[in-house]
Amino acid sequence: MIELRNVSKVYSNGTKGLDDIDLQIKEGEFVVIVGLSGAGKSTLLRSINRLHEISEGEITVNGNSISEAKGNELYRIRRDIGMIFQNFNLVRRSSVMRNVLSGRVGYHSTLKMILGLFSKQDKELAMNALNRVNIAEKAYIRADQLSGGQQQRVSIARALAQEAKVILADEPVASLDPITTKQVMDDLLRINQELNITMVVNLHSVDLARKYASRIIGLNKGKIVFDGKANEATEEVFATIYGNHELVAEQIGVAK
Ligand SMILES: Nc1ncnc2c1ncn2[C@@H]1O[C@H](COP(=O)(O)OP(=O)(O)OP(=O)(O)O)[C@@H](O)[C@H]1O
Hints:
It comes from Virgibacillus dokdonensis. The protein has helices at 41-48, 71-79, 96-101, 110-115, 120-132, 148-161, 178-195, 206-212, 235-241, 245-251; strands at 2-10, 16-25, 30-34, 56-61, 64-65, 81-85, 166-170, 198-202, 215-220, 223-229. By secondary structure, the chain is of the alpha/beta class.
């Protein structure tokens, strides 16, 4: 379980990224976070695995305080948290297999990783992960020879090889076409359902949020303005989250 208690984040220039957030996410949930650009979605996600330091409050993951943890403890808590980025974050010149194996980094010494000394078990885990996202046949080609959708699948496989219990995905489909978007979102949903991995996904698209989320959280100016089941997120709710921009755009038929 992920728990945020009274969490605020103020950037060094004084911008408030998060404003007194209280939130509990249970194991196995598929949570989608929506909100206007600048609402705080990335800040929230990156605070959970401490890519960003919070200014106030506490964040715990499975009962361990990640916001307070130091050294090895932080390393151990982070091992349970996979991260997926819009730009995939792969080592583009390395093979797909090598990228997926890098998910094992939290389990071995740095030296072993540098020398590429992976066990048979690690390789099996990586291959199973690639199978789960249906790109095992690409294992030994260079990551930069894959399409965007395939690269995103490699990054999902890396999180699986990591044996993450939680996956945080920051705009995972923002740079993908509609068909590839569906494939990647379907992968995330299948993994959530089959492996009970908790998903917290930032999305721009209201339609995707409705389709895939079990729970939608709406952010506006760093505050939670909606938290409910996907089928409770009506047009009015989205109007609140987006301050009417969305509805107005729809009503007057203007592309957002
Ligand atoms: N490194 C930073 N320094 C200062 N302010 C920042 C920094 N990163 C984000 N912010 C500000 O914090 C607020 C929240 O930003 P954040 O990136 O979390 O929003 P977002 O909802 O993810 O937006 P987007 O959909 O555009 O990615 C915004 O006002 C943003 O300008």
